[in-house]
Amino acid sequence: MGDWKVIRSATAVKEGLKERQCTVCGDAKETKKIKKLKPTIKLNVPVDQVLPLKLNQSFQVKVSGLAAGDRVVSWTSSNKKIVSVTDKGKITGNKVGEAVIKIKLRSGLTARFTVKVQKGAVRISSFKIFNKVTDKKIQKTVRMKVGEKLTLSAAAVPVTSKPQFTYSSSNEKIASVNSKGVITARKKGKAVITVECGKKAAKFKIEVVKR
Description:
With about 210 residues, this protein is mainly β. The protein has strands spanning about 5-10, 15-20, 30-35, 40-45, 50-55, 60, 65, 70-75, 85, 90-95, 95-105, 110-120, 125-130, 140-145, 150-155, 165-170, 175, 180-185, 190-195, 200-210. The strands form six sheets. A four-stranded mixed sheet has the order 5-12-11-8, with no helix packed on it. Strand 9 (about 85) and strand 10 form a beta hairpin. It is flat.
């Protein structure tokens, strides 16, 4: 028999199918089922921690990482009076208290997370700095060539906080940074970039080299 050939790819909700043909007679065929894909889901909110939400605040929950053929079929709240959720995943804190949001996929997989509605604003507990283009975390030392630009993005915890970030450079002549987090390598040398949010700060070094 010849090599297996996929004639229908497997998805999270349906088996796939493959076949192979006799290399001698060219007529006889053998078919075999392919197992369904394992359902997966990723959320932009933590499922192992309580998500704080200010009273009357809304937040868009995003779903990603679904296996082929899968999709969200429902969003439900254990207590709509406390936290309501739309069929697109937008949650709103209506009353102080806690509620569990449940997401169900076509494959049958479910995901849950708890929301705690509070009167006061959600305060930032920590944040991380990333390269906005590559989405990779910024290392302690970043090498840049003269004339090169690097745009930063900051991810705050909890995601429902509304942080205001400020950026500064220890030496603007070496590496400058604007209010939007865009770093420009000016000339050869070293500088320290500081990102602040309230009383919290993160620093990393920029080493500018010639082209």
